[in-house]
Amino acid sequence: MKSYTLQQLALRNGQDRPEIWVAYRGMIYDVSESRLWKKGMHYEHWAGQDLTEELADAPHTEKVFEKFVAIGQLA
């Protein structure tokens, strides 16, 4: 599986490039097809970031990431 840096992840924010990616626990997920992530934002969360710390404040568990394809690892 390919590795990406935080800087590369940051470019996949739905603004700078069409891809919408987020990271969680070292894995990077492509959420581009999710209607909840259109324009790179989901509630107060922005795409192109590591959301590991922010999940504690979310109304769902980490199982939400099972809906998405893991496309890489955070370097």
Can you walk me through this structure?
With 75 residues, this protein is mainly β. It has one domain (3-74): Cytochrome b5-like heme/steroid binding domain (Flavocytochrome B2, Chain A, domain 1, Roll). It is 8% helix and 27% strand. The chain has 1 helix and 6 strands. The termini are close together.
Key phrases:
75 residues, mainly beta, four-stranded mixed β-sheet, two-stranded antiparallel sheet, 1 helix, 6 strands, 8% helix
Structural class: mainly beta
Shape call: globular
Q: Which fold does the CATH topology refer to?
A: Flavocytochrome B2, Chain A, domain 1
- Our estimate of the beta-strand percent is 25-35%
CATH architecture: Roll
The helix fraction, in percent, is: under 10%
Q: What is the CA–CA distance across the termini? A: 11 Å
Rg estimate, integer Å: 11 Å
CATH top level label: Alpha Beta
- Please state how the strands of the largest beta sheet are arranged side by side: 1-6-3-2
Total DSSP helices:
1
Low-confidence stretches: none
- Helix and strand run: EHEEEEE
Let me know the number of strands: 6
Average pLDDT across residues? 93
Tally of individual domains: 1
What's the helix and strand layout?
Layout: E1 3-4, H1 6-11, E2 21-24, E3 27-30, E4 41-42, E5 45-46, E6 69-74
Parallel strand pairs: 1-6
Antiparallel strand pairs: 2-3, 3-6, 4-5
Describe the structure concisely.
The chain is mainly beta and 75 residues long. 8% of the residues lie in helices and 27% in strands.
